[in-house]
Amino acid sequence: MNAVLHPGVMLVGEALVDEFAEQPVAGGAPLNVARSLAALGVPATLVSRLGVSQHLGPGTGASAADAGARLVLASLRRFGLDERGLQFDTAHATGRVSVVEEGGTHAFHIHPDAAWDHLDGAAARALLQARPPAVLYFGSLAQRAPASRAAIQALLQDARRLRCLRYLDLNLREGCMEPALVAGSLAQADWLKLNDPELLQVHQWFGSGPLDPLQPAPQLQPAVQALMRRFGVQRLILTRGAAGYACFGARGEVLAEGTGQQDLTLVDTVGAGDAFSAMTLAAHLRGLDIAHALHLANGYAAAICGQRGPIPDKDPFFQPWQQALAQAGVATA
């Protein structure tokens, strides 16, 4: 299929409300990544499903959004994101996550049967085929329910035929810890991004022998190579917090690695992994090599950790990162 790819990212999955103790905020990994991409100058389209007031009939949309959906829509519009991928559901409310902070870490309770568990696959596929993106981003959580899992899997098959880069940000969470679900996602990924606990879990499911995901990157090569060969992954990006990051090529070879940020100002880590993915994709689409892209991603994720919540409230936060991308793009040209 010789489709013309557009220079942006389509992100499919959960858009929801993170209920912090002080206030609710719009969240969900695909939304977090989409907002950062938009702030960094990359066109992004979010495919998700939001709730509307249940007493209203079919055909209602943004004008009848429930309270959670209004938060999501306000944030989408602040960043100028494309709304064509949004779906509206009169039977299911916008998703919610209760966030509990414990000693600098966060525990999440993801409420069941949300609007994003009921994605309309036909609508999503029509949008993908009408305007194929350079990258299709997906995760595992949005596949916890049968309807959305089927919709996302069909969308990924279309993306393969259209030659879109399929980027899996694994994001293992409550509700998506099934080996079969994860295996199905890995088999659809061109690029895989995961953190060290996720690598350990995936290795326990699909690998053999002991594994310490914090050991030097070259020592991880045999396990990583076996995993990538099994599922046909072309690139694996591993984030390891203070231990830094590493990227492996299709044969398991180390393509890039770096240390963690030593001067990190930590407010919270919510959205750090999403920020890493966003900058990685933004830099890739600018034509940067993977080492430079991941160096920027590491710095950007650390900067997000110095802010409250998954995305900063102040636009000036993004300006140095926009400039860094622009300068890197000029140097690459």
From TrEMBL:
Instruction: Tell me which residues make up the Carbohydrate kinase PfkB domain.
Output: 25-312
* Pfam annotation, one family: PfkB
- Gene Ontology molecular-function annotations: kinase activity
Q: Which Gene3D superfamilies does UniProt cross-reference here?
A: 3.40.1190.20
Keyword Kinase on this protein?
yes
Segments crossing the lipid bilayer: none
From the UniProt annotation, give the residues forming the signal peptide.
none
Supply the source organism's classification. Answer: Bacteria, Pseudomonadati, Pseudomonadota, Betaproteobacteria, Burkholderiales
For this protein, the record's PANTHER family field holds:
HEXOKINASE FAMILY MEMBER, PSEUDOURIDINE KINASE-RELATED
Looking at the record's lineage, which domain of life comes first?
Answer: Bacteria
Q: Which family does it belong to?
A: Belongs to the carbohydrate kinase PfkB family.
Which terms are listed as keywords in the entry?
ATP-binding, Kinase, Nucleotide-binding, Transferase
Checking InterPro entries in the record gives: Carboh/pur_kinase_PfkB_CS (IPR002173), PfkB_Carbo_kinase (IPR050306), PfkB_dom (IPR011611), Ribokinase-like (IPR029056)
* Protein name per UniProt: PfkB family carbohydrate kinase
